[in-house]
Amino acid sequence: MPALELFVDPPDRLVPRDGNLVLSPPLPGLSRVLIRHLYCSLRVPPVPGAYPAVLDTGAPLTVFPHNLWSNQFKWRAGRDYDELPVAGIGTVLTGQVLGYRYSFRLARLRVPVELAGRDPKGDRLRLDSLVCQLADAGGPPFVLLGLWGGAFTGRRLAVEPQPNSDDLHARLEF
Asked: What is the C-alpha to C-alpha distance for residues 156 and 151, in angstroms, rounded to an integer?
């Protein structure tokens, strides 16, 4: 089964630098909680470069920041994506994730997106018709891969203790 070996790192804000929440007093068998972000690399061929993407099974949809989808990828409605109007609301919605409140367009991409793990020459997961949020300015400045819309559908996310370490190992199997 192909798999992406994910980057596992403490978040860069909101928690202690090492990503460990030490419990005081500790519970039996539990003295700390590991807070980690799971990352992979995202590419949009033929645009050069790879961009970090945070995997978040608590986010409903994948979110692309405005600067990336509009300025870097230069996506245009009708060519690179189709806007998905929502009954009774229209095409512009409001969302909130990880402390960011923003407006966005709900869209189905016409362009493929590729996900890669730690090994840039390893397996890649190609997503051909991702349903996502295209955030307006003011949204999160990073790509967030959400649970619905294609990135996790039909796949298995495995997070396990790392051998001989207190940290974690993660992979997305497909």
From this structure: 11
